[in-house]
Amino acid sequence: MFGVAYGSANNDVIAVGTFGAGAIDLDEFDLLQTVPATVAVLPAYYKVAFSTPGSVAALHVALAWGQTGVIAAGISCTPFNLNTGSTLTSACTVSGLGDDGGTACTVSGVIYQEAATVLVGAANTPQQLGYEWAAGKTGVVPVIKGLVSPTRQVMGWAAAQGGTGWITYQYAELPLEAIE
Length: 180
Fold this sequence. Notes:
The protein has 180 residues and is an all-beta fold. It has one domain: Jelly Rolls (Sandwich), CATH 2.60.120. It is built from one helix and 15 strands, in the order E-E-E-E-E-E-E-E-E-E-E-E-H-E-E-E. It has one helix at residues 135-138; strands at 2-6, 17-18, 31-35, 39-52, 57-67, 70-72, 75-77, 80-81, 93-96, 99-103, 106-118, 129-134, 144-145, 152-159, 164-175. The strands form three sheets. Strands 1, 2, 4, 8, 12, 13 and 15 form a seven-stranded antiparallel beta sheet that branches. It has a six-stranded antiparallel beta sheet with strand order 7-9-3-14-5-11, with no helix packed on it. It has a two-stranded antiparallel sheet with strand order 6-10. The longest helix has 4 residues, at 135-138. The chain is globular.
């Protein structure tokens, strides 16, 4: 099992990151995991914790799989091994908080999505809001097998009018032959 967690930087639990503005944009990724042809990924957990949703507007959180996405700018995330006694590293690359203007992805399937119109709190101070998907809650574990071409990916979005916050994403990674 591996995971990434980030705010404005890799493993940042203090400073919030800025999510994509407005509606979900297929070329502006808040999470982009590239799965090489040697492994399969089983997403297990995805949480977007909004610190600020912006003004009164729709929030839209989604996790999907597909291919061909290229992130613009953003941060590089280093997946950490959730087995603290293991030295294994992830074969996947993970980026987050991309700018608008990357290469749009082709969505092959949706793992999770949720949307709501959110109001700011009293005296214009928002209450923290989190959306999460967990394989254990749904009883379904997607199996995302890596491909050579096009490269298979897991994509996540946290769209809001002026959203900031943190993202946590955890997944199992197995050699491709273990999934056949």
